[in-house]
Amino acid sequence: MNTTPRSAGADVPSSDSAADELGTSAAQARSAVLEELILKDPGKFRVLTGDRPTGRLHLGHYFGTLHNRVRLQDLGVEMFVIIADYQVLTDRDVADNLTGHVEELVLDYLAIGVDPARSTIFTHSAVPALNQLLLPFLSLVSVAELNRNPTVKDEIAHSRQSSVSGLMFTYPAHQAADILFCKANLVPVGQDQLPHLELTRTIARRFNDRYGNGADVFPQPDALLSNAPLLLGTDGTKMSKSRGNAITLAADADETARLIKGAKTDSERHITYDPATRPEVSSLLLLAALCQNRTPQQVADDIGSAGAAALKRTVTESVNEYLGPIRARRTQYAQDRAYLRETLREGNERARAVADSTLAGVRAAMNSDY
Ligand code: ATP
Ligand code: MG
Fold first, then answer.
1. How far is the CA of 294 from the centre of ligand 1 (A)?
2. CA of 68 to the centre of ligand 2 (A)
3. Per-residue pLDDT for 370 more than 90?
4. Which mutation among 226, 240, 245, 283 tests ligand 1's pocket best, with the greatest number of atoms within 8 A of CB?
5. Phi-psi sector, 142: left (phi>0), alpha (psi -120 to 50), beta
6. Helix (H, G, I), strand (E, B) or coil at 119
7. Does the pLDDT value for residue 233 go beyond 90?
């Protein structure tokens, strides 16, 4: 990765009331403090992040969290990357092509620079002790707390199921198990994950209070937001694997051009960066800015009254240039499927050892280590 898009998007499209409900401004301020602490002493941090194997990763993932993951890894922060295969079933009855999607995720990770020698890539279903943490954790949260999670509400609205499953309501507690099994204290995420992080902190605090005997069994992890905590898709809503509005990292240059050409904009010809009133145009400007390592205002000034078509041309060129090396590496790794499987096998083994040790500590704390 050649560029470091830290200067872009100081004020990102997140100042609306939905974002405030998620606690975005506070998390952004905290993220700035964390950045300084990480630079001072990366060895004090352990990261857990991950994705659902529901399709290929896209630009929303990349600028929302993936770029941060690789940056942290390269700074010397220990990292666990979970492929959340059980959580695919939160919003659908059947997990289609799971093996294929898992391999695609591993490919995406390797292509962007996750290094299996330094970071652990693993799947939920291969780590039984992690999943067992869900039981005590669920006892620490109320049904009312699970019910009022704004991200879960949004996902139910977009779900393709006719009825809502229990897994949909409980997966944020499952995510607490994902984070706490390795005692991670830092979680680079997009804005939608903030309520889940808050629940994880609550669970950690309550577990310590109830079973810790004056000591902390679990840390209270922090969310680390990037400069693009909510990148919009081509339809103007959150870019998402499941909404058919995403530009994937693996897309070729022509497909990228076609998708960006069809992206929603607005009727005003003069291009300005104003996330509150012009969310679609602003998200495109932010995307170009992140790729160019400039600010969205600078990109907007360049385009001025040339209009949406010129904006889209700029975005297409910037994205294709930025993703070029990532796409080339992806093609190379795709030729060695055995290596992908071996990466996952080793990662699963490492994650199992960590989870077994944490579960042993939990059982001891709960007086159930007979
Ligand atoms: P799905 O539609 O299957 O839920 P998704 O695209 O929402 O897929 P997830 O696997 O749920 O992706 O999310 C993985 C991570 O990427 C999370 O940290 C999430 O916050 C982040 N992320 C996903 N979409 C975006 C986006 N559009 N902008 C910023 N961050 C994002
Ligand atoms: Mg999602």
1. 24
2. 18
3. yes
4. 240
5. beta
6. strand
7. yes
CA nearest neighbour of 195 among 10, 26, 9 = 26
Q: Tokens at residue 37, please?
A: 């602490």
Report whether 353 contacts 325 (CB < 8 A).
no
Mean pLDDT, residues 320-346: 97
- What is the model's pLDDT at position 18? 57
Instruction: Flag whether pLDDT at 13 surpasses 50.
Output: no
Ligand nearest to the backbone CA of 151: 2
Q: What is the pLDDT of residue 108?
A: 97
Q: Which atom of ligand 1 is nearest to the CA of 84?
A: 10
pLDDT digits (tens, 9 = 90+) for 61-93: 999 999 999 999 999 999 999 999 999 999 999
Task: Among 14, 51, 287, name the best residue to mutate to test ligand 1's pocket (greatest count of ligand atoms within 8 A of Cβ).
Answer: 51
Ligand nearest to the CA of 158: 1
pLDDT tens across 204-231, in order? 999 999 999 999 999 999 999 988 889 9
Tokens of 20: 């405030």
Cβ 124 vs Cβ 84: under 8 Å: yes
Cα-flanking dihedrals φ and ψ of residue 165, to 5°? -85, 160
Percent of the chain with pLDDT over 90: 87
Task: Report how far ligand 2's centroid is from the alpha carbon of 264 (Å).
Answer: 21
Q: What is the DSSP string of 278-322?
A: -HHHHHHHHHHHHHHTS-HHHHHHHHGGGHHHHHHHHHHHHHHHH
The domains of the chain are located at 8-228+336-365, 253-334
Percent of the chain exceeding pLDDT 70 equals 94
Neighbours of 306 (CB within 10 A): 14
What is the fold, at CATH topology level, of the domain defined by 253-334?
Tyrosyl-Transfer RNA Synthetase (1.10.240)
Q: Is residue 14 within 6 Å of ligand 1 at its C-beta? A: no
159 lines ligand 1 (CB under 6 A): no
Structure confidence at residue 190 (pLDDT): 86
pLDDT mean over 182-210: 96
Give the ligand with the smallest distance to the CA of 64.
Answer: 1
Ligand 1 neighbourhood includes 64 CB (under 6 angstroms): yes
Q: What's the topology of domain 8-228+336-365?
A: Rossmann fold (3.40.50)
